[in-house]
Specification:
The protein is an all-alpha fold. It is built from five helices and no strands.
Length: about 100
């Protein structure tokens, strides 16, 4: 978490925020789908009950805010660290290939 500590040292803090889950994958699944983890089925960052594989296998990626915007003509990109994605789909599991 050195990057987070550097943000804090530079004066950036978040003292009042709400998340659906403290873990990355369940929270991102909620952001993309608008559903709570108990509805997406993504409870952890990997394994049988978490990560992209669960999100994908349940068909959740077919109905996100991004796909809704795409259907009405918007084009965009979501950039950031994605862990536990399928390397066979030509996507690295993290930006630096470490995960």
């Amino acid at each position: 978490m050195p990057h987070v500590l550097a943000l804090e040292k530079a004066g950036t803090t978040f003292s009042n925020y709400t998340v659906t889950d403290s873990l990355c994958c369940p929270s991102r699944s909620s952001i993309f789908s608008g559903k709570y983890p108990h509805d997406t089925g993504v409870f952890t960052n990997g394994g049988a009950d978490g990560g992209f594989n669960v999100f994908h296998s349940r068909g959740e990626e077919s109905a996100t805010f991004a796909t809704a915007l795409q259907k009405v003509g918007y084009r965009g990109v979501s950039d950031g660290l994605c862990k536990d994605v399928r390397s066979d789909a030509g996507v690295l599991s993290s930006a630096d290939g470490s995960a």
